[in-house]
Records
---
Amino acid sequence: MTSVKHDAQLTASAESSGILNFARQSAAITHVELLKVMRDPTEVLARAVQPILWLVIFGEVFSRVRGIPTGSVSYIAFLTPGILAQSVLFAAIFYGVAVVWERDLGIVHKLLVSPAPRSALVFGKAFSAGFRGVIQAVVIYATVLTLRVHVRWNPLAIAGVIFAVMLGSAIFSTFSLIIACLVKSRERFMGIGQLMTMPLFFASNAIYPLALMPRWLQVVATVNPLTYLVDALRGLMIEHAQTLHGPLVNFVFLSVVFVCLLAVATKLYPSLAR
């Protein structure tokens, strides 16, 4: 009995040590990725302009259109979470370009010979992409404050938005990493990335309710991760907003998608060095 108890303690200790090592190695990768952003923030700042233009121009113009059913909220309030999700998508989907650059510079080879597991490498990159998404969220909140859009300023709601943004950024950056592992060329990656962003964006509820879509497009939207990200953000940011699902359903769906993509990216990442 004592021997069994001792073995169980050793197993628990090994599992705890493994989790801590995974967290440290992921944090190290995240730190390196964030240093890149801090040294050259021009890309992040440039992408911050796009959501401002969408809200200020597109939002203000389409607020005058009465044919878009948004319930009891204004169209620009309805649009705000969609534009935040869009900026997260656009910032994260091209994350794979940096990975292709790392391969060309030999950085991928160095990472692969390190003792860190492949999953920690991929998770660290995905987690760092989440911080880029948070920058987009700060820009959106500053913009809606200027435009006097009614959003929730409850600290718990804002914390939920930050979590959703980081999770969404992790999903699309990991998806981007998978594309980079498959095409292995900057030119091809840019073409595929541009090809993917518009269908993901327009086949979601970011700028109009699903009820306005034809039936076949509604089916596509129900399996689009961006739809669930928008729905989660809309429920957290806007008072009395009409949502498709509860927050638990949205976060569970997004978490499952991320775990699946993380598993695929972990398996494919070593092929990038070949």
---
Amino acid sequence: MTSRRDFSLTMVAGAATSLVSTRGMAVASPPVKARNVVLVHGLFADGSSWTEVIARVQRAGLTVTSVQNPLTTLPEAVAAAERVLSRQDGPTVLAGHSFSGMIVTQAGVHPNVSALVYVAARAPDADEDYSALAKKFPAPPASAGVVFDGDEGRLSEEAFLRDFAGDVPEAKARVLYAVQEPFQRALLTGNATHAAWRTKPSFYAISTEDRTINPDLQRFMAKRMGATTVEVKASHVSLISQPDVIAKLILEAAGQRP
């Protein structure tokens, strides 16, 4: 079992164009073969956002669990993921979309985690202020669509359809909007105290048409972690609009080759 994060990078087949980058001394070694996959959703969604990816990964014979992120505080969200990780039997790929990259970065140090997958996700360093990092890049359009009722935040319908799920058929996007899970303002104040990507093999799917997290910010984070990286012509929700590509990346992280 290897503990080295840098290894030779491979091209992901399908509708994606992959970019590769390494950090430090690259060592050729395949990912650890994983039996399980744990998925974590981000803001403006719930665990069902992974449905299309789940079906594809299950068909490959892996056990999959989608965490219902409480969206309350970062410590509580991390604890929810850690409870699921502790129930896994053997090596496990931990994948997160959007905000849940914060959770992957923190909870990914769990001993059951063999690899990390970030899908258009935040990927902070330990103790890094993600908001300050994001401000170094132009603000994405969706930022203006976040509305609060007291301490409870959500994305407006217009912003959800246009800036969050812009490449999803409108009827389906409206269904996704209807099940949007509000988040607590306190969730946005936490920082990860560990950066699992510094010690675990990492994979990143960049959404090139993203209007929720700036694609150039995604490229910066993926390059910084030396991740196996794929660029997907998709909105922020590539896990919904391009599930084949995302499932392939997760299976690669699990040590399975096409």
---
Amino acid sequence: MRIVSVAFDNLTLTQRVYEHLRDEILADRLPPGTELSEVALSKELAISRGPIREAMGRLSAEGLITMRPRRRAEVRSLTLQDLIDAYQLLEVLEVLAVRLLVPRITDAEVSMLEQLNDKMAAHAAAGETREFYDAGISFHELVCELSGNAKLRETHRRIEAEIGRFQSRTTAMRGTPDDMLSEHSAILAAIRLRDANRAAELSSDHIRMPVEGLQETLREEAAAAAVPAEPADVVAVLAEPADAAPASATA
């Protein structure tokens, strides 16, 4: 394990350690299975172990790492089913967020969402894929924030972090940037009209598309794993030339 040294502000040491490790994990610079040690991190970052321990506790609560005995941890590996489960929970959270948001949102807050949608459009036009997806995530995070439910926002952020690690695998299942922008624009239009039912329906459809693609992938993997291997003697017979003499039945 190698962590690039970072200068930390003592006033927010735990937060900075947490954000640094979280960014490293989400960017796959600390891939699944990487072992994290308080002692090693303390030496690498030139800080005490207390803030590292607190930061790792937060990462564990978010499902990004798994705690091990003797102050060690491991970057968590996620299965395809874990990813499907995360998306299904995300759908529930965002539908609820929209339903809570619509009755209470102000015109100024609608404008905040419009600005993020405009950023997505600008990034899509410029071919800035990473910035496009970052703006899209910010859009969804703001929807959850404007719902007024702090627990919903906290849970949503944790689930988004898990899903973010698989962005490259799920991007194709989400459609093109133009498709995603169109879906966001439709959700925003329903919010602007204070139509909670329509906004919730559109939010559900928006998130369900990658889930369906992942479920199909899971079915294909399960079907491939279920195909039995040919017995060795059958394989041998199939490999014999058609005019080969049959083996003696009395051998």
